[in-house]
Design a protein that fits this description.
Radius of gyration: 18 Å
Strand content: 25-35%
GO molecular function, one term: oxidoreductase activity
Pfam families: FAD_binding_5
Distance between the termini: 50 Å
CATH topology of one domain: Enolase-like, domain 1
Helix content: 25-40%
Number of strands: 14
Structural class: alpha+beta
Largest sheet: 5 strands, antiparallel
Strand order of the largest sheet: 4-5-10-6-7
Shape: globular
Keywords: FAD, Flavoprotein, Oxidoreductase
Oligomer: single chain
CATH architecture of one domain: 2-Layer Sandwich
Protein name: Carbon monoxide dehydrogenase
InterPro entries: CO_DH_flav_C, CO_DH_flav_C_dom_sf, Diverse_Substr_Oxidored, FAD-bd_PCMH, FAD-bd_PCMH-like_sf, FAD-bd_PCMH_sub1, FAD-bd_PCMH_sub2, Mopterin_DH_FAD-bd
Bound molecules: flavin-adenine dinucleotide
Length: about 270
Amino acid sequence: MPASFAAPRTLPDLLTELDGEATILAGGMTIMPLLNRGIGRADKIVSLSGIPALRGIACSGNSVRFGAMATHSEIASDPIVAEHVPILATAAAGIGDVQVRNRGTIGGVAAYGNAGADYVTALTALGARVVVVSRRGSREVAFDRFVLGLRRTDLARDEVIVAVVVPSTSGGRTAFERYFRVQGAAPTITAAAVLKPDHGRLAVGGATPTPVIVELGREFDLAATLDAVDEACADRPFGDAHNPAPYRRAMARHFATRVLQRAQEEQSC
Ligand SMILES: Cc1cc2nc3c(=O)[nH]c(=O)nc-3n(C[C@H](O)[C@H](O)[C@H](O)COP(=O)(O)OP(=O)(O)OC[C@H]3O[C@@H](n4cnc5c(N)ncnc54)[C@H](O)[C@@H]3O)c2cc1C
């Protein structure tokens, strides 16, 4: 049992609670199973669920702004997301089961920084930015600099993610793929390609501690791009008993091929 539980209603009240010791609770889909299994401890829990300012999905210039508490279900079904960043809707729709999608949030996934997670790969390819606030002020960090390693992010103990800002892919071509071995479980490999008229980006998650990124020019050579993915996987291998590193590396190459080919075949949206 935590020694204390707080559920602030406003951002200023939340910041007062974030004293460097508090554990933030969003949808609870990661943190609660960990605490139930005795992994880590939380003497003070601060829930984000009562703060309206952390909710909502809205257009902001040429980007889409996701409140940190936007759930996977909301993202999967939102018309703004479908129009401006359809691969994020695809990624959201494939996460876990209905319960996980109804409770889990984009802020929770970003804060946890699990390299294989669907959004982590999609947000990396999309060039997203994370908006972080604390009593010391606010800052915006490029998502590919925010995730530092396996479940390690550039987030201090007194900071909270308030939003994730994603550039629109309108006029570009995109594709997202996930590979999983057990329905409802986290994916083994995720891959996302964003091809804009003047540049593009490929991200592949699950075979390295942070997603592999390959920047693409207006034109790109498929074989050279896949070799770059392969080399990155060899340089920073990641694997476990179920999916060893050589297997993940092979799957990374395979799913990189698939997203690049699918994105190239797409009509620009
Ligand atoms: C059965 C199951 C299946 C799953 N399948 C998938 C899958 O297929 N693909 C996938 O990508 N993920 C999967 N997940 C993971 C799921 O997407 C995440 O657990 C969940 O979305 C994390 O968000 P949350 O809101 O539940 O975060 P929480 O569990 O509440 O928090 C996660 C961590 O982030 C911190 N945190 C949360 N919000 C913030 C914030 N705004 N600012 C700062 N810190 C914060 C918390 O303190 C905690 O350390 C699965 C989870 C389960 C339980």
